[in-house]
Amino acid sequence: MADKFDLLIQNGHVFTPNGLEEVDVAVRDGRIAAIGRFAADQAAAVLPAAGLTVLPGAIDTQVHFREPGLTHKEDLESGTAGAAVGGITAIFEMPNTSPNTLTAADLKAKLTAAKGRAWVDHAFFMGASDENADQLDQLELLPGCAGVKIFMGSSTGSLLVADDDTLEHVLRRGRRRVAIHAEDEPRLRERLALVRDGAHPREHPNWRDVETAVRATTRLLKIARRAGRRVHVLHVSTADEMPILAQNKDIATVEVLPHHLTLVAPDCYDRLGSYAQMNPPVRDARHQAGIWQALRTGIVDCIGSDHAPHTREEKDRPYPQSPSGMPGVQTLLPLLMHHMNEGRLTLPRLVDLTSAGPARIFNIVGKGRIAIGYDADFSVVDLKAKRTITHDWMKTKCGWTPYDGMMVTGWPIATVIRGHIVMRDGALIDQPVGEPVRFGETLPVSA
């Protein structure tokens, strides 16, 4: 029959705008065509979902997939494979590759590299620097651009925007929400002497201390308000920043990471050494509790993974020569479902943090909810499945996870992107189908 649906997701518990409903979801031409009850013969293909929960496709808005230039750690194919196996349907990739993403040509090169190789939908941040500051208002409107990313600290070369004048100049060029890594570079340099000659990785949150984060976030918010620019503060790691951010919600949205919600100092450094090293650092129990409280009270707007893989050889260097970062895109949903089952957040809050929240923050077109007319993106999960996260399960080229051996409750069973089943029961299916994410504030793809 010509009017058959392309795909029917049948008999699942579906998280619609009404909440969890026992309904079927029908897909046609990559979009949600109908929600209700349908016979299996009304569709060309059926995905049985009895006993499973169908969530809006989860979006990870902060990953580092290392292509071009650092592909011994990760590339667009392996990184998006991990995303798909983890139940993630779209990713936003960061600009600190080699070369950095600073021009229209750099962005085009990444989009070209992703075509036919990316398992999930994708967009790429444009890095802000002195050299492209006056073009950012046009660069941010290019198709496939997730927006502008600013590194106030922790970066090298032209991507570092450390002083207030440059920061304000960048913030005044454009209108889309800007993603910010907020650590105070002058304080980082002052305190480097604490670890420069070698130390245990447990000193990482002492070097990159709470004041380093608070000082940068306070500076940022003052300048953003003066410039009239909305900002998205990435990977907030301290309890102390949250009240400050709460007073600036009219201009600032907030991201936190599973690593800061799950790992705690000093235990993680004693167990994992430099494998727990990241920027900003995993901190002690007071800060973890403060982040959870901010999440429960609505200060936090989304959760990203900050997937930042390094090889074991690189991580095994003596601290602080060891690089900061750890993989996370594949474990984001399992960790959050586990926290939900442990009573730390609700399912509606999980959905808001991983799909509706990213869609609101970045004005994503057609994603973030299960509703007629939206992209047919689904994270199909078993909320009660007990599984153990292992190094062997990881698709990342680096081949490790800080959560090796951790048993979790809640597991991704299938990943559907615009009606294509790309992962089922842990196995990737067919060929990569990822396409650029569309935004309401960018130029049309045909432009």
Question: What does it look like?
Answer:
There is one protein chain. By secondary structure, the protein is an alpha/beta fold. It has two domains: 7-54 and 372-428, Urease, subunit C, domain 1; 58-362, TIM Barrel (Alpha-Beta Barrel), CATH 3.20.20.140. The protein contains 14 helices and 17 strands. Strands 1, 2, 3, 4, 5, 14, 15, 16 and 17 form a nine-stranded mixed β-sheet that branches. Helix 1 links the parallel strand 6 and strand 7. The longest helix is centred in the middle third of the chain and has 18 residues, at 210-227. The radius of gyration is 21 Å and the shape is globular. 56% of the residues are buried. The model has no long low-confidence stretch (mean pLDDT 96).
Main pleated-sheet profile: 9 strands, mixed
Report the β-strand fraction as a percent range. 15-25%
Question: Which CATH first-tier class of the largest domain would you pick?
Answer: Alpha Beta
Q: What's the architecture of the largest domain in CATH terms?
A: Alpha-Beta Barrel
How many alpha or pi helices?
A: 14
The percent range for helix content is 25-40%
Q: Ends: how far apart?
A: 36 Å
CATH topology of the largest domain: TIM Barrel
Structural class from helices and strands? alpha/beta
Give the integer mean of the pLDDT values.
96
Mind telling me the C-alpha Rg? 21 Å
- Uncertain segments: none
Count of distinct strands? 17
Mass-distribution shape:
globular
Number of domains: 2
CATH superfamily of the largest domain: Metal-dependent hydrolases
